[in-house]
Design brief:
This protein has helices spanning about 5-15, 60-75, 85-90, 90-105; strands at about 20-25, 35-40, 45-50, 80-85. The termini are far apart. It has one domain (about 5-95): Endonuclease, Chain A, CATH 3.40.960.10. A four-stranded mixed β-sheet has the order 1-2-3-4, with helices on both faces. By secondary structure, the chain is an alpha+beta fold.
Length: about 110
Amino acid sequence: MSDGELTFETQLKQLNIKGFVREYKFTKHRRWKFDFACPALMIAIEIEGGVWSKGRHTRPTGFIQDMEKYNYAAWMGWKVLRYSTEQINSGHAIFELEFRLQEGERNG
């Protein structure tokens, strides 16, 4: 588990946001997993590491494989939210998630 994933997991617990599963396998046809997912709401969180260091997600092959995975998820009805480790560490991602979940409760 990456530092960003550990931090996000801690943030979910601190804010008592329930329903998210780590390493959620969203299809039986491929080995794809989401970093975090709330199956009931079909919301997935992907933490994209290596943004500045030319990590797997920014190299051509990894980038194309990610597009295939995210497009497949979209066709299945998933909302895939992608955040950098910096957005996790700054609190931006958890703030946005908490705000949108509360907004959904008000509007739903």
